[in-house]
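Trying the structure run again after the queue cleared.
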Amino acid sequence: MTQSNTNRLLGIADPSWPTTSLIEKRAIELGYETVVTSTPDNFESQASELGMIVVHLPKDGSIQSIIESMKLFDDAIQFIVLTDTSDQQSVKTLERIPGVSVFCVSTIDAISWNELFGRYLERSAELTEEEESTSEARYVFVDPKSKHLLALVERLATTKAAVLLQGQTGTGKEIVARTLHALSDRADAPFVALNCAAMPEHLVEDMLFGHEKGAFTGATRELHGIFEQAKSGTVFLDEIGEMPIQLQAKLLRVLQEKEVVRLGGRDTIPLDFRLIAATNKDLKEGIAEKTFREDLYYRISAFKLQIPNLAERKGDILPLANTLATRHGLDHPEFTESALSELYRYSWPGNVRELDNVIQRAVVFADYGRIDAQHLFFDEPVACEAKEFGHHMLGQDYYSVRLGQPMPSAPTLPRHHDLQSAVRESEYDVIMDAINSTRTREEAARKLGISPRTLRYKMAKLRESHLGMSHCA
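Done. Tokens:
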């Protein structure tokens, strides 16, 4: 499982959109990645990206249209229907549909957002676990440093020691954690992950320790915390250095006693889990600055593993590049000697995430799967090369120069005979500008207001329509 607000989109179907949507506003405030539309059937093309769809059914809404929309999706998607209708028959009809939960509230303001989005996290985590149980880890252990790391992971897998993974952002700490779990005797039990920096403090506490029914207004059912969810498995706390100091004392007690008391509860619940934590910070500095507890540090770091930067394990670059190029649409990627020379020479400040970004850009311009040096667009050299040209360049201008094309004096768009082509062309410009102006795919997606998965989908569609090539010609 993974819970970081999350790997799947939260779909919101609200008739008041695009004018306004209180549900969307609350979701964004709580840090969730959302996609919004007026009716659920508009989500059909994005079904594979959604973990749950929240539907607002107003008093005058058509229950039949909602039911018909639900038929477009498979059972993997859970529906939450928020309604202020007094038609109890309609409510009972909805509740009889598998995978549908109904919240009857006087107004949308009356809903417990913690309760609602807690359900979303649980559902998305279940779906993500199913996906990852059938997929291969993305960490590559080819370089000698990586092989040494794998040997340590294999040894640690046979122990119960708490492990602290240290390394820069994008080095693959969670993949190493999953590998450790998969090699341990807990492999058949859940792997439950929580990003301590991805959610507001009150939600982190709720997801860590859970709550009882009636613990607060709107808590209509009990919620198991991630330690309970692990059930003899592994708990992975990512970015633990970002955890609020007031929660660290509660976490320390759970780790020491291996038991938890849910919010609003009295009974202690015994726990069985193995802890893996990760950080890109120097926790010793946090201790000195009084932002991280020293006793917690020693509790989570019985064994510390330093994850090497990508630039320190160059032997992993080519296998990673091949894997990423295949993931982004090239069946048989081929890298020329000049391309490999640039990949090996680059410093990779963004590590594997930046490599993913560079390969994604290269796939757009590659000729029949052959990636040459001119197809590689690095984040750091972009600024240097732009300075050499003596003026600021937009993303499309930079790509034109790298590809050996003349740079136009001013950006111009071709005339189109239909609106759809013009919209696709404009979308391409916006996407490429976002990719060029950010360091990672996640940042580009956030800048565009979409999920990384949606960004990949759009890039694939644009490649199919040959807009990339025609635009740079």
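The mean pLDDT is 76. Worth checking whether this holds up in the mutant runs.
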